[in-house]
Amino acid sequence: MTNTVDTKAHTGRTSRTDNWWLSPLLVGVGFALFIAYATVRAFENNYFEIGQFLSPFYSPKLIFDWWHFSPAILILWIPAGFRATCYYYRKAYYRAYFQTPTACSVVGTSGKGYSGETKFPLILQNAHRYFFYCAAIVLFILWYDAIVAFISPQGQFAPSVLGLVMVLNCILLSGYTFGCHAGRHLCGGALNCFSQTEQQKVRFRIWHFVTKLNEHHMGWAWASLFSVGLTDLYVTMVARGLATPIFFL
After folding, report:
1. Residue 8 domain-assigned?
2. Confidence of residue 203 (pLDDT cuts 50, 70, 90)
3. How many domains are there within the chain?
4. What is the DSSP string of the chain?
5. Mean pLDDT across the chain, nearest whole number?
């Protein structure tokens, strides 16, 4: 059965009788909560490091004599830009905030002047592939931080729950980052054939693996969004003395 627009039914925007508004509502609330929390933490410029543990919001830790503000400001534009231009996130926040449209078979707010992403400012979404390169670099640094979290300042092996949380965060970020559409295209999207040379066969195997990640891109996107926030929260609670890393040894 096909849903059609009925200007007399329900809200005047659709004839759908299900809770079509619930998904964009949850997306809008989820984004708003994370953005509010991340903004506060970025400008707080405190409680982001203790011992071998460093918050992902402040990694890599950039300290310059000429920079008198929070170092997180020098970093967060990269993951923020990567997620803001992400294909999944575009669909999600376009629907939640701009109603273009709010859901399938629901009349949106796009007028006759709507040109997709071919004019300013939406044409800037095409920078996604460049944010991908930068985000990959930051991700490798986060993996370094997660490994260092298992080594105490005295150089001893010190496994902890907080260290495992940092590793889990990196795993989820890796699934999201390397399952990205831009990453998928980089691995093999530009090839017309995967079987003529050994290099093409290798790229096909990589592309196939990335495609499997991409099939669950929405799940990776949300899981990694919350994991990076919860990891920062754990680090700041330890730095404030409100929690402990819970060492195993």
Report:
1. no
2. confident
3. 1
4. ------TTSTTTT----S-TTHHHHHHHHHHHHHHHHHHHHHHH--S-EETTEE-GGG-S----TT--S-GGGGTTHHHHHHHHT-HHHHHHHIIIII-TTSSTTS--S--TT--TTSSTTGGGGGGHHHHHHHHHHHHHHHHHHHHHTTB-TTS-B--BHHHHHHHHHHHHHHHHHHTSHHHHIIIIIT-S-SSSSHHHHHHHHHHHHHHHHHTTHHHHHHHHHHHHHHHHHHHHHHHTTS----B--
5. 88
